[in-house]
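As agreed, record passed on underneath.
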Amino acid sequence: MTVNRPNTVSVGTIVWLASELMFFAGLFAMYFTVRSVLPEAEWNAEAAHVSLVFPLINTCVLVASSITCQAGVLAAERFQPVRTGSLLQVSRWGMNEWMTLTFLMGAFFVSGQIFEYAELVHEGLTISSSAYGSVFYLATGFHGLHVVGGLIAFLFLLGRSFRAKRFTHHEVTTGLVVSYYWHFVDVVWIALFLVIYILK
C-alpha cells in the first residue's frame, strides 16, 4: 500500500497565493473606502478620464492567455516540451510553444497598461492628482507588477525546459505552479476590471 502525498511545491504555491489574495483584498478595501467617502461628483469627474474600449481589449488578451497557459500545462502533463509538427499545426504544439505565446500575450497586456497610463497622465490623471488617481494607480499598478512577476516566471520555466536534457516531473511541476500563479493574476484582474472599469 502506497501513500500519495501532495506535491509540496504545489501546496506551498497555493498557500502563498492565499496570502496574495489577502493583499489584493486590502487594495479592494482601500478602493471602496475611498469611493464611499469621496463626493460623488468629484469621483465621477475623475472616473470619466478612464475609458473602457482599450482596457476591454487588454482584458480579453489576458483572459485568453489563461487558456493558452492551460494548454501548455496539458502539453507538459503529456511530457511534450516541444511541438511535434510544423509551427502552424497548433494542435501539435508542446509546452514551450504554448507558454511562449502566453508570455507574449502577458507582455502585450503590460504594454497596454503602460500605454493607458501615458494617456491618463496626459489627460491630467496622476497618482497624486486626486484620491481617485491614487487608488486607481495603486490597484492596477500592483496588479501590473504581479503580471511582470508572472512574465519572469515564464522565462524561468522556458529556460529550465530548454536546458533540461530530459523533460521530467520537475519541469511538469514548474509549469503547473507557474500556471497557478498566472490563473490567479487573471482572476484578480477580472475582479479589478469589473470594479474599476464597469462599476466605476
Remarks:
- The chain has a mean pLDDT of 92.
